[in-house]
Amino acid sequence: MIRRIAPIQAALLTLCFLMAALTVYELSVPPAEFVLPVVHLRPSIAGAQPPPAFLAPPPESFSAINDRPVFIPSRKPLALPADKTANTAATAPPLPALALVGVILDGQNSLAMVKPAGAPFAQAMGVGASVGGWQITSIGPDKIVLHAGTFEQDVRLDAKPLGQAPAAPPPGTPQ
Hints:
This protein is an alpha+beta fold. The chain has a domain at 91-156: SH3 type barrels (Roll), CATH 2.30.30.830. It has helices spanning 7-28, 63-67, 84-90; strands at residues 98-106, 109-116, 123-125, 130-131, 134-139, 143-148, 151-156. A four-stranded antiparallel β-sheet has the order 4-5-6-7, with no helix packed on it. A three-stranded antiparallel β-sheet has the order 1-2-3, with no helix packed on it. The longest helix has 22 residues, at 7-28. The chain is elongated, with a radius of gyration of 38 Å. The chain starts with 6 loop residues before the first helix and ends in a 19-residue tail after the last strand. The mean pLDDT is 79.
């Protein structure tokens, strides 16, 4: 018994052969070379001027903001005691509880490894960094110098943070 193919089946079979031939052709032909397009940039304009420098308005122009604070519902001016400025000039901020763990000196660069009390890791800080209201003004081979206002304080490499007991020796070491 001879089986006859319907015309739709013949059309689909022809389409499948054409698709297979096209796939074989696409896989066998090498891809075309990619050429980067040439982009011509506009030359800079010789007469172009840079934008003017930003000049901040004077602090007096912000007095309305100080007179009516945004985050206070009553929006009344903040009242500061008159002797507040006298007290801050006479006393230094409290010395931060920290330990100087190490110092890295490399020619012009210097870093201090500072571990604040209660912090799990030490932080690398350079000259000018701020620690608890104090600023690091210099880093030496065995100390850092902290500066706050007119006050200055040295923190030595072997010093422990305020209120910290000496560390126990590691287990297994003779005492």
